Amino acid sequence: MSARDWIDKDFYRELGVSSKAGDADIKKAYRKLARELHPDANPGNTQAEARFKAVSEAYGVIGDAEKRKQYDEARSLFGGGFRPGGAGGFGGGGNFDFADVFNQQQAAGGSGFGGIGDLFGNLFNRRAGSATRPKRGADVETEVRIDFTEAVRGATVPLRLTSPSTCDTCHGSGARPGTSPEVCVNCGGAGLVNRSQGAFAFSEPCRDCRGKGTIVTDPCLDCGGDGVSTKTRTLTVRIPAGVEDEQRIRLAGQGEPGQNGAQAGDLFVRVHVSPHPVFGRNGDDLTLKVPVTFPELALGTTLTVPTLDSTVSLRVAPGTASDRVLRVRGKGVHRRDGQVGDLLVTLKVTVPATLDEAAKAALESYAEATADHDPRPDLTALVEKAR
């Protein structure tokens, strides 16, 4: 990206957020627009594809803390009405070099310019070839949904991804096969040119080659000379056992291609786990609520409860209270260290909505037989004490 892009483009407006927006708001806006504009959702729509690229470019800058800081500083300086070579502000003759000012400020231990010196070092560095140094590709994020059982056990899922990628025809050079980019005559391959405006002298990316140092005179027909094309590819993604809802999985080198021979970015796959109709999850343990009757808890019983694999028998001792949690070892989520979590079974007493005469008579007899038993002996005393 040229320095002029940093100054002229409004990446905040591209994402529809304020320049004061937090990282979470920026990320939320990008993910919403990316879903709406994704080529898969708009097949054949060139306008949506162009907007998708613009939104991705904007997020690549203001979605990165360091790049956003540099971008804000550049727009604050230039966007505030200050332009090199203006008629006012600085008097005196001779050439004036930004780099000299910022270097002197830093050498003197001053901090008035903050990170602006570093910013101009990045955008207007005058060393030959600095504009063409390798630049790592941007990271890409996508989403996948799996069911509860796949999250517990792990799964291998195909992932269809549409994103910028290195052109297969020219292998990223941008030139038609059999030809090569030529050295830019205007900048001599440096990618930067020196300009003087009024009292100022500064360097900026070469307009002829856009800071690349080379010009493609015979462009590749497939990518139009960009070296990058948007294409759809299918990846096989291994979802590890025990993955949690909203967890991100990193696939190194599967993001956008790098520039000038740099490594590609990474692909982050955000996993959404569909809930299970019976089981829940608490860390590495699975949870299960099992309805039981009062006689089963009072007299004791043996229950057959389901697991993700099969069923197990669970002994309930006489006199067990409702909401008691029983643990079944080794029937939970597989941990990274090879161990397995447990199944936590909560016993919940169910009360019949209606009773026939025989059941009602039996309960009345039970009530008479246990009339001397007070299940709330301390409740009144505790209330009185609290007053």
Which secondary structure elements does this structure contain, and how are they paired or packed?
Layout: H1 3-8, H2 11-15, H3 23-37, H4 46-62, H5 65-79, H6 98-107, H7 116-123, E1 140-146, H8 148-153, E2 155-166, E3 182-183, E4 192-197, E5 200-205, E6 214-215, E7 228-239, E8 248-251, E9 267-273, E10 280-282, E11 285-292, H9 294-299, E12 301-306, E13 311-316, E14 325-328, E15 343-349, H10 357-369, H11 379-386
Parallel strand pairs: 1-9, 11-15
Antiparallel strand pairs: 2-7, 3-6, 4-5, 8-9, 10-11, 12-13, 14-15
Domain CR-type: 154-232
Subunit structure: Homodimer.
Cofactor: Zn(2+)
Question: If you had to describe this structure to a student in words, what would you say it looks like?
Answer:
Residues 154-232 form the CR-type domain. A zinc finger (CR-type) spans 154-232. InterPro entries: DnaJ (IPR012724), DnaJ_C (IPR002939), DnaJ_domain (IPR001623), HSP40/DnaJ_pept-bd (IPR008971), HSP_DnaJ_Cys-rich_dom (IPR001305), HSP_DnaJ_Cys-rich_dom_sf (IPR036410), J_dom_sf (IPR036869). It comes from Actinokineospora guangxiensis. Keywords: Chaperone, Cytoplasm, DNA replication, Metal-binding, Repeat, Stress response, Zinc, Zinc-finger. The protein is an alpha+beta fold. It folds into 3 domains: 1-83, DnaJ domain (Helix Hairpins), CATH 1.10.287; 124-181 and 216-274, Urease metallochaperone UreE, N-terminal domain (HSP40/DNAj peptide-binding domain); 280-386, HSP40/DNAj peptide-binding domain (Sandwich). The protein is built from 11 helices and 15 strands. The chain has helices at 3-8, 11-15, 23-37, 46-62, 65-79, 98-107, 116-123, 148-153, 294-299, 357-369, 379-386, and strands at 140-146, 155-166, 182-183, 192-197, 200-205, 214-215, 228-239, 248-251, 267-273, 280-282, 285-292, 301-306, 311-316, 325-328, 343-349. The strands form 6 sheets. Strands 10-11-15-14 form a 4-stranded mixed β-sheet. Strands 1-9-8 form a 3-stranded mixed β-sheet. A hairpin with a 2-residue loop joins strand 10 (280-282) and strand 11 (285-292). Helix 3 (23-37) packs antiparallel against helix 4, helix 5 crosses helix 7 (116-123) and helix 6 (98-107) packs antiparallel against helix 7. The longest helix has 17 residues, at 46-62. The chain starts with a helix and ends with a helix. Mean pLDDT is 79; it is low at 80-131.
